[in-house]
Amino acid sequence: MLHLRRLALAVSAAALALGCATQVAGPDGAEPTTSTQSSASIVEGSPQAYGVLGLLNAPATNLHVLDHLVPLNRRAAEELIAHRDGADGIFGTADDNPFDDMLEVDAVPYVGPAALASLLAYATSEGYVPSGGDLLGVFDNVAFTVDEATATLALVNTASVGELDDDVGLDSRAVNSIIAARSIGSLLQLQSLYFVGQSAMLKLREYPKTLGGTTPNGMDCDAHTECQSGLCAGLLLPYYSHGYCMEAWTANSFYSSGATVIGDDGAAVTNTISVSGLATVPMDVVVDLEIEHPRPQDLRVVLHQPGGASAVLWNHQANPPSHIVAPSGLEGDNMVNGDWILEVTDTVTGQSGTLKSWKMWISSNWD
């Protein structure tokens, strides 16, 4: 049997770091670009990849952000914005071409290793790179947090044939595919293997949780891996010096993917996520927003908690965050189950936008 410490230490570095490969001269003497996608690039499907793609596709990311704040070579910044905004050069129109993967980013002229490193550093500092209990993505119809993905990659890259076959309970053909593909750098690569489908991905996600840490529920913790349940709730709260080990079911992700038009008439629009199945009061609350608007500084975004408390997520910032951790204003002794309402108000006439989707990861406790 694998032990949790082994899982924690055995994650493939390729899944979480920059790679390296042969470089070739960039056009017009710009920084070197690379001959393949792996060249000093970010592993497809990794948290870093999702963070960089989120940054480049965010409504708040414009030429000023890439040129001055990241900062990039101006030609690289111009090419990235031109690619994303399409032929009309206007973000939020029908000809937009958002970045779908890192291969597409790496192919943009003047984007080389230094540009990718700068993009990653800025995306990390601004909260675009998911971590811990944040949702990484859905793979073969199975949702994975970053922690779950990390443990799964450690498992498939270190477990023996017998462990994958007998303990995890995979089909022998899936086991053979995994062994032949090692080392596996991402869940995208894992889900592409022969005979690895929804059932296998679910088993691979859940098996590391059965190994568990040693700290029982209700005790202090500083990391998810310390807990028998695999959940250390309260780690994101600034007023807690420690988290508390809780049963795994007391945390979950909740989504709303229905697009909502944000009018410019000053009227608030709302979108609701119904939360159920948690304990009684919230601990960690993480909100991810996908809002398209040519002038995000026109917007005020408020999250309303069941029971009446509220937290302001955006308040007319020119470059508001899309990833908000533990927003202040929510009440830790108020209800967690019920309707959480996102309210978006455009207070300036002239430009409209769209709330494309939003999601929350919530951990909970008993009052």
Description:
The chain is an alpha+beta fold. 28% of the residues lie in helices and 24% in strands. The protein contains eleven helices and 16 strands. It has helices at 4-9, 47-57, 63-69, 74-85, 102-106, 113-125, 146-158, 161-167, 172-181, 187-191, 198-211; strands spanning 23-24, 33-34, 135-139, 142-145, 220-221, 231-233, 243-246, 251-256, 260-262, 269-275, 281-292, 299-304, 310-315, 323-325, 338-346, 353-365. Strands 8, 9, 11, 14 and 16 form a five-stranded antiparallel sheet that branches. It has a four-stranded antiparallel sheet with strand order 10-15-12-13, with no helix packed on it. Helix 2 crosses helix 6 (113-125). The two termini are 37 Å apart. 41% of the residues are buried.
Summary, kept brief:
The protein has helices at residues 4-9, 47-57, 63-69, 74-85, 102-106, 113-125, 146-158, 161-167, 172-181, 187-191, 198-211, and strands at 23-24, 33-34, 135-139, 142-145, 220-221, 231-233, 243-246, 251-256, 260-262, 269-275, 281-292, 299-304, 310-315, 323-325, 338-346, 353-365.
What topology emerges from the helices and strands here?
Blueprint: H1 4-9, E1 23-24, E2 33-34, H2 47-57, H3 63-69, H4 74-85, H5 102-106, H6 113-125, E3 135-139, E4 142-145, H7 146-158, H8 161-167, H9 172-181, H10 187-191, H11 198-211, E5 220-221, E6 231-233, E7 243-246, E8 251-256, E9 260-262, E10 269-275, E11 281-292, E12 299-304, E13 310-315, E14 323-325, E15 338-346, E16 353-365
Antiparallel strand pairs: 1-2, 3-4, 5-7, 6-7, 8-16, 9-16, 10-15, 11-14, 11-16, 12-13, 12-15
Helix pairs in contact: 2-6, 7-11
